[in-house]
Amino acid sequence: MQNTSKQYDEVISTCRELFVNKMSDYGSAWRILRLPSLTDQIFIKAQRIRGLQQNEVQKVDEGEVSEFIGIINYCIMALIQLEKGVVEQPDLSVDEATKLYDKQVAITKQLMQDKNHDYGEAWRDMRVSSLTDLILQKLLRVKQIEDNSGKTIVSEGIDANYQDMINYAVFALIHIKEQD
User: Fold this and answer.
1) Cβ–Cβ contacts within 10 Å for residue 22, how many?
2) How many CA within 13 A on the CB side of residue 69?
3) At what angle do helices 2-26 and 64-84 cross, to 10 degrees?
4) d(C-alpha 79, C-alpha 104), whole Å
């Protein structure tokens, strides 16, 4: 599992670098997005990945990797929004947003390590397409929870679903890198 931790950190480092660069370009404009809007952005990316996996012809020159990175970053933004709330105007500096990003990554990585221990790294035997389907399933769950005003009876909350999507996307990127 030590290798998994290192691989996880490498994937997150790539995602974090893009997040910081986009924060430098655009500021924290994403802070105005409500959770359903972030969920829909993640859904679009997951649907595109599924389309890339099923279609023989690709008309836009961006592959699965950039979409999985987008899923990770949008999920982290959603977790930050859950913690801080939605605002009417951008309110975070690059440094503040990066600290919040790192905090959510640390929590999510710990969840991965705990589950990875219990499941014995079962994800290593899964296909990237299955991880994509699991992300889509989690998105449908989140949409239902959002439609229920955030309430669940016996199920995990929205945050746990975003965390699982991050971890599935990281696993997919690890698989893709290992296939190259």
Assistant:
1) 16
2) 18
3) 80
4) 7
Average pLDDT over every residue of 108-131: 95
Contact 138, 164 (CB under 8 A): yes
Helices (H), 28-157: 35-54, 64-84, 94-119, 128-147
**Rounded distance, CA 107 to CA 119, Å?**
18
Rounded distance, CA 15 to CA 66, Å? 9
* Mean pLDDT score, 49-63: 82
Indicate the Cα dihedral angle 74, 126, 132, 157, nearest 10°.
Answer: -60
What's the chain's average pLDDT?
95
Virtual CA dihedral for 114, 16, 178, 164, nearest 10 degrees? 40
